[in-house]
Structures are given as C-alpha cells and as structure tokens.
Amino acid sequence: MSTILPHVEFPLTRLRRNRRDDWSRRLCSEHKLSVDDLILPVFVVEGSNVRQEIPSMPGVARFSIDLLVEECRRIADLGIPAIALFPSVDDSLKTEDAREAYNPNNLVCRTVRAIKQALPNLGVICDVALDPFNSNGQDGLVVDGYVINDPTVDALRKMAVVQAQAGCDAVAPSDMMDGRIRAIREALDEKGLIDTRIISYAAKYASAFYGPFRDAVGSGGALKGDKKTYQMDPANSNEALREIAADLSEGADMVMVKPGQPYLDIIRRVKDAFGVPTLAYQVSGEYAMLKAAALNGWLDWDKVVLESLIGFKRAGADAILTYTAPDAARLLARGHH
Ligand SMILES: NCc1[nH]cc(CCC(=O)O)c1CC(=O)O
Ligand SMILES: [Mg+2]
C-alpha cells in the first residue's frame, strides 16, 4: 500500500472474516440448494416424434408422449425427483363443459401411464384445472360470464380421479375454487386411492407472469378477460394464510405459493405460520425474464438461476417448480452452489 491511510477506528466485529475464504464461506452458508428440491414442469402434445419449441420460453418445448418419456429418462438420470405435467390439447377437444378433462383416455392420462411404466420411480404430478380443456380458457365452468364454483369442483374431482387411476403420484389442483381439496380427497378415498397426494396451489395469485405458460398450453388465445374472480389479488397476504389454512384442513399434503420471486414474503409467512411442506413455483414469466436477459448477454444465466433458486430456499420453500430444473441439476452436479 503506497498511500498512508488516515487514522481509522478498528471494529471488534468483522463479519467479513467468515467471508474471506471459500472454506469458511462454505461452513457458514445457511441454506443449501439440492437437486432434491427441484420439480420440472413439462408440456405434452398429441402425436409422435413431435418437439415444438415455445417461443416465449426459449429452451422449453412441448413433446409428444414418446419423446417426453425419453426426456423424462434424462430428467430422472439427473436426479430430479418429480415432474409436473401440463397438456397442450387440440382445439377440437375443447368445449364449454371441458368434459375431455375427465376422459380416462385423454392426453394427460395416456402420458401418465407411459411415463410411470417406463420410469416408475419418477414422481408424476398432474395439474387439476379445466383451462387446457375449456373452450374459453378459464379454469372453471362459465355461466353468464362468471366461473361457477361448485359445478366446477364436481368436474375437478372427476378429473383428479381419472388422473390418479392412470397412476399419477400426486394431483395438484391449480384452479382456486373453494372447497375443492376436500371434494378431491373424498373422491380419491372413495376409489381406494388413499395414497395419491394432493399438492394444493393454495395461494395462487392473478398474475401477469403466467403469459408464456398460456402460450405453451394454448389457453391464452381463447382466454377472455382475466382470472381475478378466483385467483388472488397481488395486494393481499393475510388472505394467503386463510387459503393455506383452509386447504390444510381439507386434507392438502403439500401447499404451494405461486408465482415465486415476487411473492417470497408469502412463502416465508406460510412457512412460519404452518411449518408444512411448502412449494414455490417459479413461473413461466419469471423464466422468460431471466432467459431473455441471458440471451441478450445482460445476465449470467448459470449464476442467476442458482441465485434465484437459493432465494426460494431462504424464504422457506422446501421445493421449487422451475423450468430451470435440468440446468440447475447439472450445475449442482458440477459443484456449483
Ligand atoms: N391452471 C392453470 C395454470 N397452471 C399453472 C399455470 C402457470 C404456470 C406458469 O406460468 O409457469 C397456470 C396458468 C393460469 O392460471 O392461467
Ligand atoms: Mg382456496
């Protein structure tokens, strides 16, 4: 040091000491991201040998069942515990009563059977909501312009039963109707499907971050208006605790907060209040933001992926649904953290 420094006061506590070297940074690290924390959402489409890139989600594609099974084999080999399955349904099968949702031979059920046959140990989670099968793109049945609760729940419980009978490990109602967890639990138990888990999208917000997902499943074009009469107001957080409490009392095995990064405060409150398995969904729009910036050379993809995921762990999430799961798993396997 060439310059003479002026007199300084010496701090007794130096928090920088533990940050000085890699070994002490590692010892003092409070949270760890592991491949065990990851769930990959995947999109399936009719046909064979089909792979369709999704323009608003670069690096994510829809696959026909045959290619999706191969993809799932790679996912399982990376050590990712589970996938969440979403169908992109042909427009000709979409109706106002969304009855294809509970056809035991629909695209979702055929996909579940194929994946579970090839990869019995990979967790398969099915989404329970009517939007992929609904000609108006809403998650429920619409009468006079309003999504009606109880008849929607009746359709949802039939949907959950055919998915569970096809062999999925968990059903994940993402519709935000009231009372659907109890109705689904009772319907599953009645059929002897007592071990099918219910992962509730309990605190799901009416978010603009779902845009790319609606492209991926093809529900965006049909959707008129918004989902504000059933998904939550982004301004609310006490209400999220009431939603979670209701779904736990109705029999939810795990609960989810969605979207993820703009709602880290909700994850923390839910974890502190209930201490139950709490999942976060880093949704399509969050993926698209990071990806677009990385493709422009504005952000370092590998680093922002791991930083965004450790943020969920720090907030209290036990697991994260993320389109980055394969990249994150590869980075973690190479020792990044
Ligand atoms: N029931 C629909 C559903 N299930 C998962 C997502 C969004 C997932 C994502 O954006 O990645 C949505 C979209 C919506 O509610 O309109
Ligand atoms: Mg609810």
From TrEMBL:
Q: Which NCBIfam families match?
A: PRK09283.1 (NF006762)
PANTHER family, from UniProt?
DELTA-AMINOLEVULINIC ACID DEHYDRATASE (PTHR11458)
What is its quaternary makeup? Answer: Homooctamer.
Quote the EC number: 4.2.1.24
Q: In which pathway does it act?
A: Porphyrin-containing compound metabolism; protoporphyrin-IX biosynthesis; coproporphyrinogen-III from 5-aminolevulinate: step 1/4
GO terms assigned for molecular function: porphobilinogen synthase activity
Q: Which reaction does it catalyse?
A: 2 5-aminolevulinate = porphobilinogen + 2 H2O + H(+)
What protein family does this chain belong to? Belongs to the ALAD family.
Q: Which InterPro entries match?
A: ALAD, ALAD_AS, Aldolase_TIM
Keywords, A to Z? Heme biosynthesis, Lyase, Porphyrin biosynthesis
Q: What name does UniProt use for this protein? A: Delta-aminolevulinic acid dehydratase
